[in-house]
Amino acid sequence: MSIGIIGAGAIGQLLFAQLNTGTSNAHKIHLISRSPQSFIQPMSFTGLDNNTQHGSVEILGQDAAEIAQLDLLIVCVKAYQVVETITPVIDRLKPNCQIMLLHNGMGPHRNVAELLQHYPDMGLSLATTSQGALKNAPWNVSHTGNGKTLIGHYCGQPLAEHFKSFLLEQIPNATWHANITTALWQKLVINCAINPLTAFYQCKNGQLAEACYQTEILTIIEECITVAKLDGIDLTNVDMVTMVDEVIHFTANNTSSMLQDINHQRPTEIAYISGYVVARAQYHGIQTPANLTCLQRIQALEH
Ligand code: PAF
Questions:
Q1: H-helix segments, the chain
Q2: Fewer CB within 10 Å, N- or C-terminus of the chain?
Q3: What is the mean pLDDT of the chain?
Q4: Which residue of 15, 143, 190 sits with most ligand 1 atoms within 8 Å of its CB, as the best mutation to test the pocket?
Q5: Are 145 and 214 within one domain?
Q6: Rounded distance from Cα 280 to ligand 1 centre (Å)
Q7: pLDDT at position 226, please?
Q8: How far apart are alpha carbons 94 and 69 in whole angstroms?
Q9: How far is the CA of 89 from the centre of ligand 1 (A)?
């Protein structure tokens, strides 16, 4: 079976390393970049134990013939790149290829689900991870924090059992979720509470455990829970505060993806994180001032 990971960012490279660890040759794992041609690339990956593995890897380009052989395509690009990444390759995928999205924030799954209506033998799964990963250089990634990875079926044909068990075995702390939309909302709340604050205050995740940030974090969480409820998703305050605290603790040394984006002057996923909550709140006719402040602060930094 052939698995492609498209998007060679920090999380894409982390996943590539994890899916390649200790495996038999049952699955061939490809890393796919967004350039047209394939190339051989020296890479290094440092695990949580500080052991570094070096190697040369063939990175497939968008035109590579291997794309037509993939059984599972894991899309690890930023939320705002999901549709533009899938659109040019979808016609070359096997008719029954499975697609899995793994990114922060919410929104693009609705567009991909619409696209898949024309491909009835394909299926869409969604995943979200709280693992920390840092790109020290373009092909040099460190695993900077443990965290949970949640995966579940969203629409179309279900993911085959052997893929499910492979992913759950290879990715540390990965679990399958029957209701992935609730899991995505939980992760959204975590990202709303951590990402904009770390980017705005220029701090590592662990610093958010300090007392001075607690009022802001609790207000963001409460607003998210209210909007989720209006969207038909029941989240409890106790659970969400615990989950946010746990991620702050387990990824204390991590530079959040949004802080990395701001520091490298890249666009952020704020429109799909705080922006998604603000948009859903507006749809339901309510205000979410703390999340709106986060959205506006990060948009100002982006500009
Ligand atoms: O976006 C991130 O950085 C991650 O989702 C998380 C969980 C906040 C850890 O840094």
A1: 10-20, 82-86, 108-116, 161-170, 180-201, 214-230, 237-250, 257-263, 274-283, 289-302
A2: C
A3: 95
A4: 190
A5: no
A6: 22
A7: 98
A8: 6
A9: 28
Domain that holds residue 153: 2-178
Active site residue 187: yes
Ligand 1 atom closest to the Cα of residue 269 is 1
Judge if 55 and 77 occupy the same domain.
yes
Q: Compute the distance between CA of residue 13 and CA of residue 225 in angstroms, rounded to an integer.
A: 32
For the record, the structure tokens of 190 come out as: 């975590």
pLDDT tier, 297 (very low <50, low <70, confident <90, very high otherwise):
very high
What's the count of helices (H) and strands (E) in the chain, helices before strands? 10, 11
ipTM above 0.85, yes or no: yes
- The CATH number of residue 145's host domain is 3.40.50.720
Please, which pLDDT band fits residue 25 given cuts at 50, 70 and 90?
low
> Rounded to the nearest whole angstrom, what is the distance from the C-alpha of residue 91 to the centroid of ligand 1?
32
